Amino acid sequence: MSLAFLIQAQQTVGNASIPFKMAVHKRRRLSLQDQTLPSSRKRTSEEPTARSAKRMKKSVSFNDDQNKKVTIDIRTDEKQNAWYNRSEYRVFREDIQTTLLSVRLGVSQLMEPTDFCLRGLEANVSPNVGMLRKVKRKILISSVLQEQRSQRIVGAVKPDVIRDVSAVLSTDALVDAVKRGLSDCTDAHFSS
């Protein structure tokens, strides 16, 4: 059972005020018998069986607190200047292709370091590196999803276990990120 409240307001569009109505629905709160579960999945004192876990109703709930943020509308030309357009993206792609080609041909070693940067393109320099990253990412995602499915079947909620699965499978990425960060720091602070 939900309660609905009708709000009447006015929206200003240009110089005109347009009245509108909006229904706000409030969800009924369930009794808090198990404080460890999120409010959208409270359960009774009985543990769900594997069969009842399959039939668990999926639901989405929203916080009752409403945060409103007032924004000032900006002009169309300011919006256009705030985002890249298609021609700028095309230039970015061409620059990336030129950079990768110069690395593959060995020309990048003759270029000035200030005119050349591979940051973010490391996986594209070598097809093997890029493919290995994609495979590891797919394994990580499928493992996390499998753990979530397993927990759902037994009616458990253990986010720490899901986090541990992700952490173990992403250790290589963490080590690579730290190495790249140290390299960037060294280049930025100690190069001439």
Describe this structure in words.
With 192 residues, the protein is mainly alpha-helical. It has a domain at 85-125. 49% of the residues lie in helices and 11% in strands. The chain has 7 helices and 2 strands; from the N terminus they run ββααααααα. It has helices at residues 50-54, 76-82, 86-105, 122-125, 127-154, 159-169, 171-190; strands at 3-13, 16-26. The protein has a two-stranded antiparallel ribbon with strand order 1-2. The longest helix is centred in the C-terminal third of the chain and has 28 residues, at 127-154. It is extended and about 65 Å long.
The fraction of residues assigned to DSSP E strands is 5-15%
Order of helices and strands: EEHHHHHHH
Span of the ends, CA to CA: 69 Å
**Low-confidence parts:** 1-14, 20-43
Lay out the secondary structure.
Elements: E1 3-13, E2 16-26, H1 50-54, H2 76-82, H3 86-105, H4 122-125, H5 127-154, H6 159-169, H7 171-190
Antiparallel strand pairs: 1-2
Keywords, separated by commas or semicolons:
two-stranded antiparallel ribbon, 192 residues, mainly alpha, extended
Give a short summary of the structure:
By secondary structure, the protein is mainly alpha-helical. Helices cover 49% and strands 11% of the residues. A hairpin with a 2-residue loop joins strand 1 and strand 2 (16-26).
